[in-house]
Structure formats: C-alpha cells, structure tokens
Amino acid sequence: MDKRRFFLEIAYFGQSYHGWQVQNNAISVQEVLNSALETLLREPIETTGAGRTDTGVHAKQLYAHFDAAPVGILAKPDRFIHSLNALLPFDVAVKRLIEVADDAHARFDATHRSYEYHLHFHKDPFIYPYSCFMRDRPDVDKMNEAAQFLLGRQDFECFSKSHTQVFTNICDIRRAEWLWHNEQDLVFHITADRFLRNMVRAIVGTSLEIGLKGKPASFMQEVIKSKSRGKAGVSVPAHGLYLTEVAYPYI
User: Fold this and answer.
1) Does 17 show up as a binding residue in the annotation?
2) pTM summary value
3) Which residues form the active site (predicted)?
4) Closest CA to 169 of 190, 186, 192
5) Which one of 52, 62, 173, 203 has the minimum C-beta count within 10 Å?
6) What is the mean pLDDT of the chain?
C-alpha cells in the first residue's frame, strides 16, 4: 500500500533534551520520537518538525510529519496515540494524529509560531524548572513600549545566534507583549511567521536591559537598526521559554 503523510501534535518538557533536532552526541526530542515510532510501526521512520527548539526549551505545541502506510494501528488513531505515548518518556507526549495531504509540510506550511517567556519574582524551588527567577521587578510599561518597535517585517540579525547559516534574517512579528499572570508571574508573548535561532531569548534579554537597567524604550529600535548581536542584551536562560503554538491553514 502507498504511504500517506501524517502530522503529530506533540508537547514536551525540554530540560533533559538538547533541543528538538537529532544530534550526533546528545539526546534530542526528535530522536526519542523517531525511535518510539519505529518500535510501534516496525519500520524506519524519519520525522520532520515545524522548527527547532534549543537545548532546554519546552514546547506546549509542536507538529512533526512522517510518512507511513495507513494500515494496522495507524488506522486506529486513538489506539495509536495511546501506544505511542506508552513508548515515549514521561516528558514527551503525543496529543493528536492527523492524516494530511501528501505534500503537506510541518515546517514550510506553518503560517505563524508563538512563544512565551516566563519570569517569576518569588523564590520557589517547585517552579524553578518552568520559569526564570528574578529578584527585581522590571518596568513593564516601558518594556511594552519598547516591544512596539519589534512589530512588523524587519531584519532581526541582531537577535540571531552568531554564525548561524540562514537564508534570511527577515521575520514578520505580529505580536509582542508583556502581561502579568496572577499579579506575580510575568510572561512575554510573541508571535511571528518565523524565528531565528536564539531570537526570543535575546529579545527578552534586551527588554530587561530596558526594564531593569534604565535604558530608554527606543533602545530596542537602536538594537534592531544596528544588526549587531553584540548590541543586544544577553540571552536569558532556556528553561523559561515555551513554544506554545504552530498554526497551519488546514489544521
């Protein structure tokens, strides 16, 4: 029987993984997913993800596609998901199996992606792996003023990891906003058509230069125009970052 294309919606806690993508010398989410799929379907499986996440970054929603014949357990989505989850580690979960068109692509068809970065200001050992602890509260109004300079289609080379080979540094940011949750936890929400490596963590670090260290809101625009990673703030720790949504026109 001819193979068909399937999308998997997955979520994972990234602390134990060196990001999404398979690597030669470190464990990744893609590696454990491929291994579980091969065990379940009894054939070599290669997944393609919606994008990369860096070491230690979490995902509340990420899609990956793979090709297989729609027979056996693949013809029973609920049973397939249950069995696949039983094979996966506790910190990786499959939520949905979706049969799609043969030319559908988890990476190239995504219309936008959203991230959150979480900060907390009360020392709590139980939320430390999920959020970045800070002792001082920043000026959130000022950071939101600065976030307006991020909106639109621009060259964001200044926020990209150095020596990264990409076709373009142009991204279209559609949302950039800081919001208090429960008056104690501060979350940065950002949505764009695509992101560069390390981009969100560098944006958050630059925002904190404004919110904590007295730089004007216009410093954000100055950094963007400079196209210099050295001008931007330091990258904040990975464990506060979550990929929260990947959107497609057919899902």
Assistant:
1) no
2) 0.94
3) 54
4) 192
5) 52
6) 95
Residues 6 or more apart whose Cβ sits within 8 Å of residue 251: 7, 63, 98, 100
pLDDT band at 172 (very low <50, low <70, confident <90, very high): very high
Label the pairing between strands 170-181 and 185-192.
antiparallel
The two tokens of residue 170 are 């142009």
- The residue whose two tokens read 């995504």 is 110
Answer for the pair 242, 60: CB distance below 8 angstroms, yes or no: yes
Integer-rounded Cα radius of gyration of the chain: 19
Write down all domains in the chain, each with its CATH number in brackets: 4-99 (3.30.70.580), 112-247 (3.30.70.660)
Cα(214)–Cα(138) distance, rounded to whole angstroms? 10
Point out the catalytic residue in the list 54, 78, 109, 193: 54
